[in-house]
Amino acid sequence: MSLNETPRGARLHIGLFGKRNSGKSSLVNALTNQNISVVSDVAGTTTDPVYKSMEIHGIGPVVFIDTAGFDDEGELGGKRIEQTRKALDKTDIGILIFSEPPTESDKEWVRLLKEHNTEFIPVINKIDVIENEKELKDEVFAVCRKEAVSVSAKTCEGIDRLRSELINSVPDDFSGSTVTGGLCSDGDLVLLVMPQDIQAPKGRLILPQVQTLRELLDKKCLVMCCTTDRLEQTLKALSKPPRLIITDSQVFAAVYEKKPEESKLTSFSTLFAKYKGDIDYYVDSTAAFERLNENSRILIAEACTHVPLSEDIGREKLPRMLRAKYGQGLRIDNVNGQNFPEDLTGYDLIIHCGACMFNRKYVMSRIERAKAQGVPMSNYGIVIAYLKGILDKIDY
After folding, report:
1. Which of 58, 148, 225, 296 is the most buried (most CB within 10 A)?
2. Percent of the chain with pLDDT over 90
3. Does residue 37 contact residue 28 with C-beta atoms inside 8 Å?
4. What is the average per-residue pLDDT within 101-107?
């Protein structure tokens, strides 16, 4: 992902769920003050989930997920419901919409939201036409154990209160988390080593580099950047060793050999492993390498859907490193984007990218799936550091 694209992974994801014709799309339009979702009286107008990036005052950048009705019917309807279920994996805050008394399908979605540990807000929509609002609120409370917010997507009544509820529902660990954590602070000198090889987009930086650089500037750090071949020259030009060196994982070993002893070392992928996922599980999962052999099977998952180029890390470099260690017969499968198997039990290890294109909720849903099925899962940066023998020498 390049600098001029929307960093969806950095945004709070708000999913709208409800029956067909409950007014999900209309509510998205009311919340954003834009006609971004197609609205119709015909049930089932929304098919695949619609993702829309916006700003909400008090929260900042968000992504609204407008989903298909979870009461859809038929074979095609079943596929739409499945896409709605998958959207739940990405949802940080859910809005569960009612315009009629709750049914068993509503109760099922309350259960799913709680099962996913997803904070949600019950909403009664269409109060401009509903005659039994109080009775409906009581019925919704009985199902959700939460007081519903009453709104009219048509007249915008109650929309301001709903925005306030969204602000109050932001997960505690969302706004406080940072990419670099406690590795550096105000006044620290930080060196970014960023090889501009064939994988780097021409004239642009990739998202992890951009996001990390911006955060360091916000922290008031002193930032220096160089490519790998200019590392020694850059270090000599500095008046003191950097407090922290952040590098591309692919050149971990080369940078480690040349770094000053007092400088901490990490990688962009390692930082994002902690920012987006479960760093402890990633590190613990490297124990799986002791059990691998030529007959083992590994899944390499990448969030990006770019066309792989020569020397792609996930499709060429990592497989080459792994086969050199465990044998050419090692079976390696690659998936990208939202393609991720439901059944992981056939794999001895999963290696995931830094997931800069995903939000943390979605990455954690994959980790939880791996944990539930007893499959170790790690990350590009952690794995490369392990294979190079410097995992215990890096910081995160």
Report:
1. 148
2. 76
3. yes
4. 95
